[in-house]
Each structure stands twice: as C-alpha cells, then as structure tokens.
Amino acid sequence: MQPMPTTKLKQLFTQYKILALLIAIAIIWSFFSWKTEGGFISARNLSNLMRQMSVTGVVACGMAFVIISGEIDLSVGSLLGLLGGVAAVLDVNHHMPLPVTVAAVLACGLALGLVNGYLTAYKGIPSFIVGLGGMLAYRGIVLGVTDGVTVAPVSEAMVQVGQGYLSTELGVTLGVALFALAAVLTWRQRLNLGRHGLPVPPVWRDGVRLAAIGAVLFAFVRTLNSYEGIPLPVLLLLVLLGAFSYVATQTVFGRRIYAVGSNMEATRLSGVNVQAVKLWIFGIMGLMCALAGLVNTARLAAGSPSAGTSGELDAIAACFIGGTSMRGGSGTVYGALIGALVMASLDNGMSMLDVDTYWQMIVKGCILTLAVWVDVATRSSRR
Amino acid sequence: MSAYLLEMKGIVKKFGGVPALDGIDLQVRPGECIGLCGENGAGKSTLMKVLSAVYPHGTWDGEILMDGQPLRAQSIRESEAAGIVIIHQELMLVPELSVTENLFLGNEITLPGGRMDYPAMNRRAETLLKELKLNDVNVVLPVMNYGGGHQQLIEIAKALNKNARLLILDEPSSSLTASEIEVLLEIIRGLKAKGVACVYISHKLDEVEAICDTIVVIRDGKHIATTPMRQMDVRQIISQMVGREMNQLYPKLERTQGEVIFEARNVVCYDTEKPDRRKVDNVSFTLRRGEILGIAGLVGAGRTELVSALFGAYNGRSEAEVWLNGEKIDTRTPIKAIRAGLALVPEDRKQHGIIRDLDVGQNITLSVLGRYARFTRIDREAELKTVSEEIARLGLKTASPFLPITSLSGGNQQKAVLSKMLLTRPKVLILDEPTRGVDVGAKYEIYKLMLELASQGVSIIMVSSELAEVLGVSDRVLVMGEGQLRGDFINRDLTQEMLLSAALDHS
Predict the structure, then answer these.
(1) Three-class SS of B100-142
(2) Contact list, B358 vs chain A (CB under 8 Å)
(3) A328 CA to chain B: closest CA distance, Å?
(4) Which of these, A285, A365, A372, lies nearest to A333 by C-alpha position?
(5) Where are the domains of chain A?
(6) CA distances, A95 to each of A81, A85, A151, A300 (Å)
(7) Which of A37, A250, B344, B350 might form a disulfide with B430, Cβ 3.0–4.6 angstroms?
(8) Which residues are CB-neighbours of B196 under 8 A, at least 6 positions away?
(9) Cα separation, B324 vs B293, whole angstroms
C-alpha cells in the first residue's frame, strides 16, 4: 500500500497520541488568551487553573486504572464529597490534629474503595451498578453527616493543604530535579535499546524531546514562581503522576491491570488472580477519592454537602479525552491528566469570558464526544 | 427448464487468500434430501453460509441457480425470499418471547398503524405446529418453557412459516433425545412428500442413512463424491470423509513412557443453561509420565469442557477428582491448577489465549511475572532474557519482542501462548486444539516441541478434531461422544475409521 500523506499524519497521531492533545491544548489556550487579551495566560490565572484541575486530576489518576482494567466507577464524585465532609467534620467539630484527620480520611477512602472492589470482583455485580448504588448511598451519607449544611470554617493547617504554596527555591530545585530525572531516563532507555539490538532513535529526536520537556518545566516553574510558587495540590498531582506512571509501566501490578482490561479470561487462565487485581484497583480509587476530598475541602476551606457532585463525570471524561480505551486494556495516566487539563482550561477560560453556564456544558459535551471520536478513528486503522 | 430446484456450480470461497471451498458443485431436486458429509473443517458450514447468503453474492466465485434462474442474494432476507432457509446448529430463538412471536420474528402480521395482529398470528402458529404434530405447545407461552427438542421443532416451524422450499438443517439433532430425533425425521419425511427439499448436515450417520436420498461428501473444501444413498453404507461414507493419506506431516522421536502420574476421576460438567444436563458425564482416565494422550471426538462431545474442568476453567458447575503423583490436588481455579503443575493452552486463541494490548514479550511472561519482581518492580533485563530464550527455543518468528502480539501469524501467536504456559514448568500440559488456524510449517514445529517435552517427562493431553493429527502424535487415544468416554485405544494399527466409528458409536 502507498502511504498517503493523510494516513502518514494519522499514523503519527496514532503513535504519538499525546501530540494531538498538546496541539488541542495549544489551540484552546491561544483562543482564550486572544479573547481575554492575555488574561488567560497570566501567572495568576494559570496558577488558579492548575489548582482548579487538581481535584479532578487526583480522581482521574485512580479512574485511569479503573478504566484500563475494563471497569468504571460512578461513585467517586459522591465518595470524594463524603470523604471531604468527613474531613471537615473531624477538623471543625472534633478539632482533630491534621495528621489524624488525614490518616482517618485515607483509611475510610481505602475501606470504601475496597468495598466497591469486593462487590465488583468477588460478587460479580457489574461495576456500573456498584458505582451507581454508591453514588446515591455515599451522597446520602454526606447529607446525613453534615446535616445538609456547610461545615466551616476549617483549621488553618487544613487550609494550607489546599491553598499553600511551595517556596520559590524549592520550586526551582524540583524543576531541576525533574529535568535531571528525564535526562537520566532517556539515557538509560537508549542504552537498553542498544543492548537488545533494537533501533535506537536518532540523537536529535531524543534531544528535541528532552529540550521540549526542559522548556515546559522551565515555563511551568517560572510562571508559577512569578505568582506565589507551585501550589501544594499541584505538587501532589505531580507526585501522583510519577507514582501512577511508575506503577503502570514498571510493576507487576501495573502490567496485570492492562492484561485484565485487555482480556480478562485469558489473564485468568494464565494463573493471575484477576479478582485481587480488581479489588486493589478499586482500593486505590478509594484512596484517590480521599486525597481529592481532602484537597477539595481545604481549597474551599469548608465541607460542603454538594462537594464533588458530578466529579465522576469530569474524571471519566478526562480519561477518555486522554486516550484511555473504553473497552479497557490501553491508556496512560499522563493522558488522563492532560485530559483533565483540557477540561479545566475550558471551564476556566469560558468562565473568564462570562460564557453562560449552559453554553459551557454544551461545549464540554461536544469536546468530549469529539475527542473520543478522534480516538476511535485513529484506533480503527490498527485493526 | 432444469429438473433441479437448486444448482450450485463451482463455488470457490477464500479467506485471506486461502480457499475454504474449492470448486464445489451441488444439485438438489424438489423433495430430495441431501446428506452433506465431511470432517470438522471440511467446509460444510461455509458452503451453507454461501447458499444462505450469510456470505453475500460477490464475496465468493461460482454460480447459484434456483429454479434455473441465477440467484444473487445479498442478504439472508433475499435468500429466504427465494425459499432457502437455514436452521443453525445453535438455536436462534429469543427465549423470552412467545412461540408465536418467535415464529413471526422479522415477518410479523400487522394491522394498520404497525400494531401486531396477534389473533391472526396465533391462528397461523397453531396451524403450523399442528402440521408438525406439536400438539402440546401453547403458542402464547415464552419459548423458554419448552425443552431443546421442542425448540428445535419450533425452529423448523419458523422456517416453514417463511415458505421454505429448501431447508438447510445444520446438526439439527445435537440437542435432541432419541425419541425427539424420531419425530424430527418423521417431519422431514412429511416435508419431502410435500416437495420441500432438504440439505441435512449431521455427524450422526445413522440419521443420514435413514433420511437422505443422496450423499455429498466434501473434504478440505473439495467435492469428493455425489452418490445415491442406496448404493452406499455408513462405512463407505466414513472412508470417503477421511480419505486422506498419512505422509510425513508428523515428526518421529524415540522415547519411553514412565509410570502413571496423573489421574482424573469422575469428571462431570453440567450444562450452564440446563443444570440437569451433563456435558461431561463421569469421565475417568489416567496418564503416564511422558505420554501424549490424544482426545478425539466430534464437536460438542464434551472434550473442551472436560479439559477445562480439570484446569478449573469450566464456566459452569463441575466436579472432578484430580490426582498427581499419588496425591489428590486441588484444581478448582486456574491459579491452583498451575500451582499444582497443570497448564492449559485453550482452544480459542483470540478469546482465551492472547492479550491483544500487550506485546509479544509481555504475553509470554504474564503467567510468571511474579518471578521478575524486585520489590514489585519488574526486572526488565531478566524478563527480556527469558523472552529471548523462549523466542529462540520455540522458533517464534517475530522481528522484536516489543511488537504487538496481533501482528504475528496464527502459528506464532500460538507459540507465544504455548510458551507462556510452558514457563510455569507444568508436569501435565493440556493442549486444546493446539494447531487450529496454524499453517503446516508451524504445525510441524508444534508437534516436534510436544514430542521433545514428552521425552523430557512432561505428560501431554491433546484435544483435537483432526483425526490425522491425533493419530500422528498420540501414544494413546481417548474417544469421547455425547459427554461420555467411548473408547481408549493404544495408538498401534489404529485408523481414522476406527476413531470415527467410536465417536459416532457405530462399531
């Protein structure tokens, strides 16, 4: 077959899905900057934007694993609301020290996540139904725990979790460290490829890649430092991105997540305990809900009974925009986070432009559908 | 005008360049019943899918004439309009709908405004069922209230409701009891008297003998013979079906067998839909160290269910007592079975073998991934070393272990699945149709590997529908039929005819 220019372009996007996403973000950001006369890309707004996406981003990390394993969890919005509410109640009503509150909320999150996982993996209830049930039940518990009123004001220590910043010096150190890490990983990958007699990409290509990573890191740290510094929730998101990417690509558990999502029966016949894998995926999802709930309560400085409403849809949308496959078996955590950034950028930009809420919803809905269509269209060429 | 109702001339159907049908001719007269015979995979079903336009006109070469006129059906609907109706091996009824609704599915009698005319449909349904002497069926009850036998007859009523002039019955009796089969044959005789022609496909040659006027045998997609039934007997049909000469398709390796190390006792598998029906009925057998045991039988004989149950992978209720090296072992889940020293390479490679989204190397190491874990992190170096060794050992043809598994040919995918299960170092290796969809060269390599493993003391159970393969590599052959063990033969002077007779219970 003669590779036509369009198919070549298609191949490029299939191979580097992230490219299409970055281009989409560039377009969205340019559009909003032009419309807001640069207000959108001011340091203050970008800092704000990233803090806004942190809650969805944390949930999206966990959701990426759930969707890659071929399941779905609709309960996360209510669960993060519940856990955020528990955090507020412990902090405001019982004056617990922050570490105790955090530990208790994380434990609750893990436990409830494991319940979801147990019902799905061992009792065979479809995760869609478990999630739907949880969505109602957990929201009900939040309303009960908070008596339907906002729990405020939370302690100063707690507020720091959501609204604190990393000092400028630490921010720079972090940026340099991340760049060094990227350089070391690239170098090691080249060594490994060479050792196994595999084609090593040309030096310039890795160089360009590394330069791009450096530029993004530099811009990221510089922009945030020129405002107040790197927000703590954004730092948390970076840590989670690293941890989840490590688990997904380097560990036995990660490999099994992809295997279970791609072909559960074949994985089971290979002697993998597929039920345990699913149980822990949901356990991790619960932990992420706990973190997201803590950040959300800290950011708002209050526990609201409606917190996290439709948060599950944002997280699921972020995963799909980020190229996670509906049928399971493929997807990346960084993709999900870029998906979350796309959603947060749309929210933030349209709010700045005073676009009516109904238009915001219409635009977000269309973007989600479009993104998945692009994904499906590029995927079919491989089959 | 032609005296034939249907003529098929020089039908060629290729799948990816490989001919599944290679110039088949078939003629059917009104009121004639043709027995279409051939081994599994000979092309019977493909031919009938061409005829009933499951494969539309244009996707195959050749010509179909109905009443002497060319038929170029693009869809099942068009072939049904011409009077050709196929009844598939699996029942195609909607269990929750009533008998009437099923009979008229897709052809409903409607009142103005699209409302269903139930009284008219019920009357017609009752008449149809009366013609088939099904007097005890209430047409307004859901189909699921009736057993497999009745459902099969309801399928026939559905076909007749479409004014079928040529009825294709693909293994219609596989779910019927002996008395139900009698009723079925009686109905077909009645249809013949009315001028309806039939193509009857069945592994049960005594039925074919009882009902068919003409026997058409196909083998490897080629037309072998068309003979009037009165000039033949079952033995002749079998020898025409098998007919293949044994040549050097199978490697030879001198080896000795050890003592009995494995034993399965009283394996029972219950049907997932009808819990009182046994798919595997009390099967017991033993296996020696280094022995290759072939399990032959027809499709639906319960072979896959038997080996799945031994490996804890049968998706229904099953009972089995499994002994290895004199100890009773627990094989109720694949994890336990693997730990005990069993390994299964499943029949359906796409559904149960490969993992599409993982690359070749990741597929191979999935079963033993824990071995490469260093504090949860996978030691990629060690993993790749194993993968490279495995690729070399099995002669797996791939440019790199990082290619998607789906980019490999069927034979190489099978080698990857085989390698995955061999890494667990099994004492008993179960292979279910190990060479299905595998080309001749890779087949030979798989046989060779089996012989080498056996000479190293691994015991192998091989389920296969290819009788030649069973005879080519096995030391001993079990034959199954209708869930039961029908024979246990040492592979010495054993012939395909003997195996087929045992499978058909026609000794």
Answers:
(1) HHHHCCCCCCECCCCCECHHHHHHHHHHHHHHCCCCCCCCCCE
(2) 255, 258-259, 262
(3) 9
(4) A285
(5) 39-164+232-380, 165-230
(6) 20, 14, 13, 18
(7) B344
(8) B30, B31, B160, B164, B165, B166, B167
(9) 16
Q: Tell me which H or E stretch contains B220.
A: none
Topology alike, domains B6-242 and B249-341+426-507: yes
Tokens of B449: 């590997």
Q: Is pLDDT at A6 greater than 60 in this prediction?
A: no
- Enter the tokens of residue B378: 């996978």
B354, A266: Cβ pair inside 8 Å? yes
CB spacing of A252 vs B370 below 8 angstroms: yes
CA distance linking residue B213 with residue B227, whole number of Å: 9
Q: Which tokens in the block code for residue A39?
A: 């207000």
Instruction: Give the strand order in the sheet containing B222-228.
Output: B84-87, B166-170, B197-201, B33-37, B214-219, B222-228
Contact B361, A198 (CB under 8 A): no
Whether the CB-CB separation of B6 and B64 falls below 8 Å is answered with: yes
Window 316-355 of A, Cβ < 8 Å to B: 325, 329-330
State the residue for tokens 């900057």: A33
Kindly report the backbone phi and psi dihedral angles of residue B272, in degrees, each rounded to the nearest multiple of 5, phi listed first. -70, -30
CATH superfamily of this structure's domain B6-242: P-loop containing nucleotide triphosphate hydrolases (3.40.50.300)
Cα B133 to Cα A221, B130, B458: the distances in Å are 84, 5, 56
pLDDT category, A94, cuts 50, 70, 90?
Answer: very high
In CATH, the number for domain B249-341+426-507 is 3.40.50.300
CA-based nearest residue in chain B for residue A331 = B357
pLDDT tens digits, A198-256? 778 888 888 998 999 999 999 999 999 998 899 999 999 999 999 999 999 999 999 99
Place of tokens 């990426």: A64
CA separation, residue A216 to residues A56, A213, A221, A223, A348 (Å): 22, 5, 9, 10, 21
CATH topology of domain A39-164+232-380: ABC transporter involved in vitamin B12 uptake, BtuC (1.10.3470)
Give A7's pLDDT tier (boundaries 50, 70, 90): low
In terms of CA atoms, which chain B residue is nearest residue A248?
Answer: B377
What residues are paired with B28 via a beta bridge? Answer: B6
Q: Which residue has the tokens 């059917």?
A: B28
Question: Residues A68-89: pLDDT tens digits?
Answer: 999 999 999 999 999 999 999 9
- Structure letter (DSSP) for residue B60: S
CA B234/CA B229 separation, integer angstroms: 9
* Partner residue facing B378 (CB), from A198, A255, A268: A255
Nearest to B486 by CA among B311, B316, B329, B297: B297
ipTM: 0.82
Extents of the domains making up chain B: 6-242, 249-341+426-507, 355-425
Locate the DSSP E strands across B271-402.
278-288, 292-297, 318-324, 327-329, 342-345, 373-374, 377-378
